[in-house]
Structure prediction request, 371 residues.
Amino acid sequence: MTNFVLEPVKTKTINLLDFDRKGLADFFVALGEKPFRATQLLKWIYQEGVEDFDLMTNFSKTLRAYLNEHCTILTPEIVVEQVASDGTCKWVVQTHCGNRIETVFIPEENRGTLCVSSQIGCALACTFCSTAQQGFNRNLATSEIIGQLVVAQKRLGADKKITNVVMMGMGEPLLNFDNVVAAMNLMMDDFSFGLSKRRVTISTSGVVPAMYRLTEVCDVSLAVSLHAYHDELRDVLVPINKKYPLKELMEACRDNAKIAPRRTVTFEYVMLKDINDSIKDAQGLVKLLKNVPAKLNLIPFNPFPNSNYVCSSKDTMLRFKTFLNDAGIITTIRKTRGEDIDAACGQLVGQVADKSRRHLKLQKMAAEHVA
Prediction:
């Protein structure tokens, strides 16, 4: 059993990884420095890999002394590494409060995708997701989100490059809006990681107000966890649907698709045997997505302990995919990666000191079921 430590007492030390370029510019201006110091610092940290302020030679001695006294560049720590038979890497990352999250790197021939966590646990309780069964502790700071890229790239070395980032790890990114957007700004900043906006994807279960806000402030690719074509089933699979039902969700998706010509929204759809995998379900999806520029990503269900779901058969998934493609919806079946190390979609768990008390509720339900 993990012994969780208490959250550290806040000090005057400022972690500079918590700022995107605008935040850093404001920080330096408040010190009486020029805004361009922000770009210099970004290049030192993210492109040169320098974390010692004394080595930042284009800063004055006075500024370096101030940074040494009041600031830090602090990343989370990789404490466990697992490599799957298909080359997928999963890292257990220790946060500074004692909880642990998980980050996954998926190597492919022409790209390397990092799946990044945004929260310690998750508060949304989606019934098919292992992460959701752990409960929720807190939002990750910007430094803990972008820090996953920093430590992952260091561990991978120059031979393996992170070319894509998906905010599909532990947590609901849009419930940690400001920190996630700041981290994504850093991912796309030319003076840090310089990723294309088309190579940064944020996945949401449907936090509709935050989706509209995201459309206004950050142009990244959008993925939506759909999993059902009607509210009755989606209320069970994705409980936030009770607050933001499908009609509202589809309107937010159409709004996001207006950002640019030929823009599409990716919809994620976990395949659950005898739950949502019939041709009737496929017909319902065609009707639901009729007026939304959409791509559909079918995800084989990845089992976890005490789950009541079973993955649809390969034949069922192929029939489902064929029907949707024939109806004009671009549909693919996601290749399961890292399953032998529990790194596949929906399997990330980390170690969470649950503040939502969900684990106690689940234990009670299980005991009542046995009785």
In short: The chain has eleven helices and 14 strands.
